[in-house]
Amino acid sequence: MGYIEPAPIKDKENPLESMMQRFDKAVELLGITEEMYNILKVPRKQVIVGLPVTLDNGRIHTFEGYRVIHSTILGPGKGGIRFDPDVNLDEVRALAAWMTWKCAVVDIPYGGAKGGVACDPRSMSAGEIERLMRAYTTAMLDVFGPDQDIPAPDMGTGSREMAWLMDEYSKAKGMTIQGVVTGKPLVLGGSLGRTEATGRGVMVSALAAMEKLRLNPYKATAAVQGFGNVGSYAAALLRERGVKVLAVSDITGVYYNENGLDIEDALAYRTRNNGILEGYKEAEVLPAEELFRLPVDVLVPAAKEDVITRKNAADIQARLIVEGANGPTSALADDIINDKGIMVVPDILANAGGVTVSYFEWVQNRIGYKWTLERINRRTDRIMKDAFNHVYETSQKYNVSLRIAAYVVAIDKVASTYKYRGGY
Ligand SMILES: NC(=O)C1=CN([C@@H]2O[C@H](COP(=O)(O)OP(=O)(O)OC[C@H]3O[C@@H](n4cnc5c(N)ncnc54)[C@H](OP(=O)(O)O)[C@@H]3O)[C@@H](O)[C@H]2O)C=CC1
Ligand SMILES: O=C(O)CCC(=O)C(=O)O
């Protein structure tokens, strides 16, 4: 459509470019005006902070932290905080925009935001991580707020870090404010079901897609990349629904068993073994690049961005990819995957179970009441199924992939909200 120059084809793929390429396609289908295009493209706020933190050896290291609020038109900014060495502003911008589209796809009243700190939590002590999280929270006191911007866990962070954030924020404001953050421990106002919510949503959308492909879960096989929060629950819940999980992976390698892995056993091993699968004896260890070549029906990338690229997309044998991670497929791989007839349930749909239960957590904090796990799971499953069906019907209507259809659903909702509200 030409409002921006198309991103040049490069070997090194970038999540922000990937997001924009899909965004451009959806915008063209919807016939969005140039003014609206620019409103939706540019993040509302981008904050970069220096975070001096005293390390255990007494030295002070200054980390760089980010928070990007892409949009607040549908409600407060919402999105996780990532601790990872690769965090940078472009990545956080892409992740924040994906949050806007994701919340719109599942129809929850939030805008999109994301935060991150470039650090390696694997090599930091708990005390160093706590000091870093508290410094980050202090730097973001004017950004965060239960009606402004509500963080949550992402890669490298979990309920422990969210507890520190809530504590630091509450102390600064002089009162306990549970609704400033989600993904908290239960005792601090966390919600039942949040820990497993993203993996559960992956399972629900995988089963919905398998039904469309006439793939019987009890005869299907899967491989999962990443055995952290999203990957481990996705693997366990798929297994529970009959899918044989042949491989899972973490940073230490791919663990493969042609007869299917016992996921509970692998999880117990990981817990005993400092959080990693290294040394797990019930599986053969394969090199990392083998994961996407395995002869399985379903692939679940649940680690990080740009792991399926135009360099390895042609080797994929699966019929279905369900994106637990944000941005695991680069835009340059889309055509290869579509030409092979592989169905992809895109990130902004497949991994939306996490933010959905975060929304339930925030609602419970505001009304001061706790819902049962049964109610939370039932509501999450219904939201995920409705969102899948809406995106599927949109893909049929426009004759596009589920990914482009998900962007169409999201952008249409956000753009029409702008039109009704009138003020920009
Ligand atoms: N947590 C959530 O609720 C949500 C997360 N997501 C997305 O899901 C993805 C994973 O997040 P989450 O599970 O929370 O993160 P975690 O930090 O809990 O887990 C990440 C997992 O990925 C593994 N990993 C990292 N790099 C690689 C690699 N190069 N190859 C193979 N495995 C790798 C890690 O291995 P190791 O443990 O060895 O480091 C770990 O098992 C991210 O894209 C995140 O944005 C999306 C929606 C919600
Ligand atoms: O739970 C949330 O609020 C956001 C989770 C997240 O960061 C994501 O969906 O990518």
UniProtKB/TrEMBL annotation:
InterPro entries named among the record's database cross-references: Aminoacid_DH-like_N_sf, Glu/Leu/Phe/Val/Trp_DH, Glu/Leu/Phe/Val/Trp_DH_C, Glu/Leu/Phe/Val/Trp_DH_dimer, Glu/Leu/Phe/Val_DH_AS, Glu_DH, NAD(P)-bd_dom_sf, NAD_bind_Glu_DH
All copies of domain Glutamate/phenylalanine/leucine/valine/L-tryptophan dehydrogenase C-terminal, residue ranges: 191-422
Q: Where does the signal peptide begin and end?
A: none
Membrane-spanning intervals of the chain: none
- Name the CDD domains for this protein: NAD_bind_1_Glu_DH
- PROSITE patterns recorded for this chain? GLFV_DEHYDROGENASE (PS00074)
Q: Which UniProt keywords apply?
A: Oxidoreductase
Looking up PANTHER family in the UniProt record yields: GLUTAMATE DEHYDROGENASE, GLUTAMATE DEHYDROGENASE 1, MITOCHONDRIAL
Question: Mind telling me what this protein is named?
Answer: Glutamate dehydrogenase
- Please name the taxonomic classification of the source: Bacteria, Pseudomonadati, Bacteroidota, Cytophagia, Cytophagales
